């Protein structure tokens, strides 16, 4: 399935270019670009799922790595379409145009990451390191969203935020063990677990910090510690990657 994945991913990059240029053109062209990219991402998701299935059920962690890679591309495309909608018919120096360029950059980064992952899947010696690199990139993107001024759609209790930090503790222990063993399967499992643990922690932290009972001072502290925790965890993963 590798060649089919590469071909479809290339088509998606072309769709991305049309989406970005479509923001400055007619509504019809923009609609065509959006529809084309939606069709292409559906095709790409299907062929990546077939590729993951072809690995066999005895390697579920690598299957998860592939599925995560296509999920990242789909999320980036959704954000890009949203940014394109916001920038449509706006002047070149409008802030929404800068957001559009940023979204397009993330989109290309995630497609590139998917292609690197597909290539690494065939090489057992690099599967773990590639999974770890992809997770590090994903966490950095999640941190950018966390640090944005966007208010979460819902709030949660401080207790929920505390509960989510337990996942970080478990993932840290797993990362240390993977750094000691250096086995590719341990590193892949660490990458998959780390990705979920940090994303859950950031979501819970931001939702709790915007709880109605939380003061602005406490919110600022909670957001700062959420950032520091993530940066510390990223440093840990960089060390595991180095090892």
UniProtKB/TrEMBL annotation:
Entry's localization field: Cytoplasm
Keywords: Cytoplasm
Chief localisation class: cytoplasm
Biological process (GO), any one: actin cytoskeleton organization
Residues covered by the Talin IBS2B domain: 7-118, 128-240
SUPFAM superfamilies, per the entry: alpha-catenin/vinculin-like
Protein name: TLN2 protein
Organism: Probosciger aterrimus
């Amino acid at each position: 399935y590798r060649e089919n994945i590469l071909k479809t991913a290339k088509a998606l990059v072309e769709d991305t270019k049309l989406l970005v240029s479509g923001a400055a053109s007619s509504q019809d062209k923009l609609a065509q670009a959006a529809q084309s990219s939606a069709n292409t991402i559906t095709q790409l998701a299907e062929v990546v799922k077939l590729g993951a299935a072809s690995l066999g059920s005895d390697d579920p962690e690598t299957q998860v790595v592939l599925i995560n890679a296509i999920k990242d591309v789909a999320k980036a495309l959704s954000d890009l379409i949203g940014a394109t909608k916001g920038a449509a018919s706006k002047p070149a120096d409008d802030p929404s145009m800068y957001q559009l360029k940023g979204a397009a950059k993330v989109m290309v980064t995630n497609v590139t990451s998917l292609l690197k992952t597909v290539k690494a899947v065939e090489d057992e010696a690099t599967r773990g390191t590639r999974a770890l690199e992809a997770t590090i990139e994903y966490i950095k993107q999640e941190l950018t969203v966390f640090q944005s001024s966007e208010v979460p759609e819902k709030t949660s209790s401080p207790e929920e935020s505390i509960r989510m930090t337990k996942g970080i503790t478990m993932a840290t222990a797993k990362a240390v063990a993977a750094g000691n063993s250096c086995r590719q399967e341990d590193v892949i499992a660490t990458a998959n677990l780390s990705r979920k643990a940090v994303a859950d922690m950031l979501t819970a932290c931001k939702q709790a910090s915007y709880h109605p009972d939380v003061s602005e001072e406490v919110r600022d502290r909670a957001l700062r510690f959420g950032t520091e925790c993530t940066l510390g965890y990223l440093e840990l993963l960089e060390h595991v990657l180095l090892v």
